[in-house]
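User: Batch of two.

Assistant: Item 1 of 2:
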Amino acid sequence: MTAQHIDSKPRLPLGKLCDISFGFFGIQIGFALQNANMSRVFQSLGSNVDDLAALWVAAPLTGLIVQPIIGHMSDRTWLGRLGRRRPYFLAGAILAALALLAMPMAHVLVGAALLLWLLDASLNVSMEPFRAFVGDMLGREQHTAGYGVQTAFIGVGAVVGSLFPSLLDWAGVANTAPVGQIPATVRYSFWAGGAALLASVLWTVLRTQEYSPEQMKAFGETQDIPAPDTALARSNPAQALWWLAAGGVLALLVAHWALAKELYLLAALLGAYGLARIFAITMARAGRPNMLSSVVGDFSGMPPLMKRLALVQFFSWSALFIMWIYTTPVVAQYGFGVTDPASAAYQQAANLVGRLFSVYNGVAAVAALALLPWLSARLGKVGTHALCLTLGAAGFASFLVIRSPQWLQLSEVGIGICWASILAMPYAILASSLPQAKLGVSMGLFNVFVVVPQLLVATVMRSVMDAFFPGQPVWTMAFAAVTLIVAALAMLTLRGKAG
């Protein structure tokens, strides 16, 4: 596939770029409501701060499984006028809207945890094809602009979702509730968010028309799925036993040292991948490729550039997941002096966190359209991303010295610029280097390196905090700063290999 062929796609105006990504506005409202309020929901239903990470495990685990499957399926889908990616946008949006409707009516922790699983699964079904959709619809020269517009909608949607509870509180809606119940501000926010999500995805579905397989071939971007990589068939199934062994050893260590029980999940995932790899190799050797063998083969055969970007994503998203889990307890304890989630002060702290999240998302929306293109033209995509990651590290580190809740808005500026770059630059680099016929599954596999660090944070962070910083959640922000510095250094290894 040549650049000339890719660039033969029509150059789309800004309005069409907006139509392509407008659905992400609603999807991100759903994610923002989830990220800013689920810790609050769990604590309102009786969870303590030490159990939050375990309750959040369902979300990244869902993404780990769902996104590669949806990517694989959407690469092979063509439903006539409905297209390739849009069926998945629509199905995911309907399910996510239903989950947002039901979430505030949960009265027990297990119910809320199950609904979080359904919500995250549904959001992932919608989100993953949107990443590939930009690559489908735009030529190489518009990838940066396309993902920039998508990031802007993500930022605006997150601002709206984050501010819902505060705006309702300002309007006089009850912001507290008896123990075991969810405040009315959260309930109404989830219901409004579900409606906005479904409406915005419908906008993209109805106002876009995907290129047919014949048109893609005319652009030099065939949708014929390549033959399975023979490298998988040549692999030795016995090598997969290392994954099984690693899972077994980790499980024994957890039992022997009485570590956090959530680590058993990591052990199970290692063992599950080992079994999946054995099965995939066996099927490939027998000449009977299937979805599992295809996904495992694509994962093990990632291009070198994708592997390097995956390392950057791993450390970047570790910091973000720390932020989403622990910002509310940190602000409540150090800014408001409370740790009781049933108190009015704690609920005020939770609303402030929503406003802080709206700041970083608002900054991200502006940065995606104005700052990132300007920096990219001068520093290149690699240098721009490394700089933005460093600014994010500074934002997280400032939580250690800034205790005034209002001044923390300055911290969110650096985090917002970093967030904009995380959502745009790696995907712009990746979309220009992947075969079109496997764009969906490749984006889904790339998400593995968004999900795995989240699982590690959700399972390991509690043990680290209990061992070294008991009752001091602010130190989680120091960990977030360090992981972003590591991500920036890893990004610099891409100089000369990407734009």
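Item 2 of 2:
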Amino acid sequence: MNPLLERLHPYPFERWRELTADIVPPAALAPISLGIGEPRHATPAFIEQALVQALPMLASYPATAGEPALREACAGWLQRRCGVTVDPATQLLPVNGTREALFAFAQTVIDPTRAGATVLCPNPFYQIYEGAALLAGAATAFVASDPQRNFGADWAGVDEATWRRTQLVYVCSPGNPTGAVVSLAEWQMLFELSDRHGFVIASDECYSEIYFGDEPPLGALEAARRLGRDDWRNLVAFTSLSKRSNVPGLRSGFVAGDARLVKPFLLYRTYHGSAMSGPVQRASIAAWNDEAHVEANRALYRAKFARVTPLLARVLDVRLPDASFYLWAGVPAACGGDELAYARGLLAQYNVAVLPGRLLAREANGRNPGAGRIRMALVATPEECLEAARRIVAYTESLEP
């Protein structure tokens, strides 16, 4: 067996199942899960129809690079959404969702023979970043979160020695689990550091279309364009249809950026066997070419957050995120700030599942930045989310002396 597999941590949801195996929630209350970030809004019918109509394509092997029509649809979306022009033949590649691509990309760009090979990622974080780094033979360094910036990563706090060892930086904007968005000034700092030290930036932007302000979140490619970096040097952005179009089972997204990185990534994925099926490609074309369903989806999330967030703010340290469909909430002092105990009690007494923050983070400098916080994914129906909020309020108030 590959000895690097032994370095992997249990996935957060597996760990949570172990920690709650002894709990029997009250049968009188219907279960409500705010734990897994799986979109549960209805998939648009026109995307399903495009998938069905393309089923005859199952008789042919798909190309790893994808159909030209799909690459052009993705490039067209980037132009409309971000004002960014990419060459669909050399600077863009369809992928089977961002999870697969974020993992595989590290296997392409990491050189484990270089002493101290390091992957830098935010903390708390999406666990795929850490697994990708470990199986690529690199160490993982974590960037502390900044409570003053909605718990976004404190890139300015990274020491120079760590930057020198770094080969790959994972940026998640909007962030999972915090919902924080990277600013133009932060992007400029990261680009300048990349120029100085030569590391690659992988920007995970799968939550970019769920936001609450008037302006959409700033993506990496758009930031680079604003700063005059139109060659996307050492930069690749990852995005997905899962959250944008409510098709998590479609497993469809794309990467775009530096052609010098996209070319070897295509070579790797050709050997890896990562071609997207023809019907999925056709459904993806339909999805990327339509914005009306995205606007409707965003309106649903905005309505849910507008009702749920003020209610929860009565008893928890929580506020509206910059973007994404998560609330990153601090638990009350009445439970000693122990989010594991809080989440177990909530499940045991009110049949509501949330994810304890420390399972989404790693201890660094003697502290786990997820401790004392829970992640709630408002992916269920508005009625279920509101009912969950009412139960959370009742449970939290019951903890007060």
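The longest strand covers residues 166-172.
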